Amino acid sequence: MIIYGWNSKNIKQAPLENYECSNCQQKQSVIAIFAKYVHIFWIPVFPYKKTAVIVCTNCKRETEENNIELGTKGAIQQLKSAVPIPKYLFSGLALILIAIGYFSFVGIQNGEKEKAYLSDPKTGDIYFLRREKETNQYNYFIMKVRKVEGDSLWLSYSSFVYNGIVTKLDPRDGFYDIMFSMHKDRLKELDTSGELKKVMRDYSAADGFYQEVEFHESDSTGN
Ligand SMILES: [Zn+2]
Questions:
Q1: 10 pLDDT tier (thresholds 50, 70, 90)
Q2: Under a CB-based contact definition with an 8 Å cutoff, are residues 170 and 158 in contact?
């Protein structure tokens, strides 16, 4: 759940000369300028408005900007526009922009890394693919490079199919102990067509991608 809302911050307070309080008729008022801002989890994201309030220090009466008499209004407007909005009221916006920048940078880095892996396959590389024509939600399958021989790749399938890109193999899953060959160019075709979703190298043994499964004829689905 995201908690957000509006808040205001007193950014300036100054004595207001010769202003007579309509309640107690004393001339002891101050003018307070507030910046209203949007917050997300109480972190100010951006300010959107400045408001002014006259406060009588004697009787504590507060007069909102809209109810201030015309003669005084000009001076208040001047003060209001002269008071700068503190930069920290933009902290949330800065954080959001930094986060967007960071994630798009990481995304580009990952994309380029995967392209490099594809153009130079190595033993152990893992490919996540999606069968576009498959109507079943379990349409992701995984291939692992067993060896590279010239322009040929020797690959094994995982014994399970998945409903998305997984970061861990099911403990009962693993790569079959049988291989099939594929030309390197076919890999690029799979990438261009969008079937190839992710390339992985340098993964942890704890995630199960080193697991092996013995292939039985009965495992074959016949297609
Ligand atoms: Zn007063």
A1: very high
A2: no
24-33 pLDDT per residue, tens: 999 999 999 9
Residue pLDDT, tens place only, 143-179: 999 999 999 999 999 999 999 999 999 999 999 999 9
CA of 65 to the centre of ligand 1 (A): 16
Q: Containing domain of residue 128, as a range? A: 114-219
Q: Give CA–CA dist 143/66, Å, rounded.
A: 69
Tell whether 109 is covered by a domain.
no
Domain C-terminal end among 93, 128, 156: 93
Q: How many residues does the chain have?
A: 223
Both 77 and 148 in a single domain? no
Ligand 1 centre distance from Cα of residue 10 (Å):
20
| CA of residue 171 to ligand 1 center, whole Å | 76
HSE of 19 in the Cβ direction (CA atoms, 13 Å)? 26
Ligand 1 centroid to residue 19 C-alpha, Å:
10
Residues 167 and 201 in one domain: yes
